Amino acid sequence: MKEILQHIRTKLGSYYTTGEVTALSRILATELLEIKESTYFLKDPVSLTHEQQQQLDKALERLQEHTPIQHILGYENFSGLRFKVNSNVLIPRPETQELVAWIESEANGKERILDIGTGSGCIAISLASRLPHSTVEAWDISPEALAVAQENSRINNTRVIFNQRDILTYCPTNEQFDIIVSNPPYIKEEEKEAMEANVLQWEPHLALFVPDNDPLLFYRTIAKKAITMLVPGGSIYFEINRAYGKETCEMLAELGYSNIELRKDFADNDRMVRAVLRVI
Length: 280
Ligand SMILES: C[S@@+](CC[C@H](N)C(=O)[O-])C[C@H]1O[C@@H](n2cnc3c(N)ncnc32)[C@H](O)[C@@H]1O
Prior knowledge:
Layout: H1 2-12, H2 18-32, H3 37-42, H4 50-64, H5 69-73, E1 75-78, E2 81-84, H6 94-106, E3 112-116, H7 122-130, E4 135-140, H8 143-155, E5 160-164, E6 177-182, E7 187-188, H9 197-202, H10 205-208, E8 209-210, H11 217-229, E9 230-239, H12 245-254, E10 257-264, E11 270-277
Parallel strand pairs: 3-4, 3-6, 4-5, 6-9, 7-8
Antiparallel strand pairs: 1-2, 9-11, 10-11
Helix pairs in contact: 1-2, 6-7
C-alpha cells in the first residue's frame, strides 16, 4: 500500500495540493481499486493485478488532465445512494445533501414534490428514496441530463416522473405541489475566472451560470411561478449562491412568502433557504 500511495503522490504532486492528493489517494485506493478501507489506513501489503495497475495508471493520466475523479469512476455517492455522472450533469455536491436532509426533516412523507433543474436527479431521487409515500416529479431543460437522471432513478429503484421543461418560459397550469425544491444555475459569468479547471472544463455550463446582471434570475422566476404551483402552506427550498442569502430572502419576502429561513452549509457559507406560501 505504501508503494502505491508513493506512486500516486509522485504522479499527482505537481498537479494538486497535498490535501487534494490525500483525498484522491483514498478514493483511488478504496473506490477505483476496491482495496479495503482497513488495508488503506493500516497501509497493509497489497499486490495489484496487471489490470488494476493499468486502471490506476489510466486514472492518474486523466487526473493530470484535471478530469474530475467522479468522471473517472463514473459515479458519485450522495445521500447514501450512488449516482451515475457524466459531462451532461453537475456532479452532486456534498452541500446539496444538507438541503435534502432539511426537506426530509420537515416533510410529513406524503407530499407532492417538484425538483426544478434536476441534473443527475440527486435531489429528486434521494427524496423519493427517503420519502417513499411522496410523489416526486423532476424537471430539467436538458434532455441529456434527464436521460442520466432517469437511469439514476432506475439504478436506485425509485419512482420519479421526469419532464423536459424550461422553467424560464414555462407557464404554470393547474399542477399543484406541496414542496418545490431547486438548485438552479447560480454562478455569475464574472466568477468564471476564479473557478477550478476541472469544473470549467468538465461540467455543463448550462448547469452553472447565470447572467452577471441578474444573479437571482432563476430564484425570482421559480418563486413567482410557485405562487400558483404550490398549495397554500406549501414550501419552497433553494440551494443558493453564498453571496446572495440576504437578497434571496428579501426577494421571497417581497413576493409574500413567510417563515423564511436562511441556513449555512458545513463550510459555514450561507447555502440554503426555505420559505412558506402564506395560507390566505
Ligand atoms: C446547478 S445544476 C443542479 C443539478 C442538481 N439538481 C444538483 O443539485 O446537483 C442546475 C440544473 O438546472 C438545469 N437548468 C438550466 N437552465 C434551466 C431551465 N431554464 N429550466 C430548467 N432547468 C434548467 C441544468 O440543466 C442543470 O441540470
